[in-house]
Amino acid sequence: GYRYPTAAIKDRCGISKSMAARRVRTARKLESMPMTAAAWRAGLIDLCHVDRLARANQPHRADAFADAEAM
């Protein structure tokens, strides 16, 4: 087994450690972004959009993101 999710994703997906870490960060952010996650699963937005939204979802914008996700 793997000790860290980044290592598992790196090995299983054949991507760089930095890209794997980015995917883990994005996945963790999506836990607080259910509408974004649903839009991605439905194919309405792509991974580039998800990455950009996840990077923009910072603590100082948490209220704005929560409001937008509730719409």
Report what the structure shows.
The chain has 71 residues and is an all-alpha fold. It is 70% helix and 0% strand. The protein has helices at residues 5-13, 17-30, 34-41, 47-56, 62-70. The longest helix has 14 residues, at 17-30. The relative contact order is 0.12.
Structural key phrases:
71 residues
Number of helices: 5
Q: How much of the sequence is in beta strands?
A: under 5%
Question: What integer value in Å does the Rg equal?
Answer: 13 Å
Overall shape: it is: elongated
Helix-residue proportion: over 70%
Average pLDDT score:
94
What structural category do the secondary elements indicate? Answer: mainly alpha
Low-confidence stretches: none
Order of helices and strands: HHHHH
The termini sit apart by 40 Å
Report the count of strand segments. Answer: 0
Largest sheet report: none
Summarize the structure.
It contains five helices and no strands.
SSE topology sketch:
Elements (H helix, E strand, L loop, with lengths): L4 H9 L3 H14 L3 H8 L5 H10 L5 H9 L1
Helix pairs in contact: 1-2, 2-4
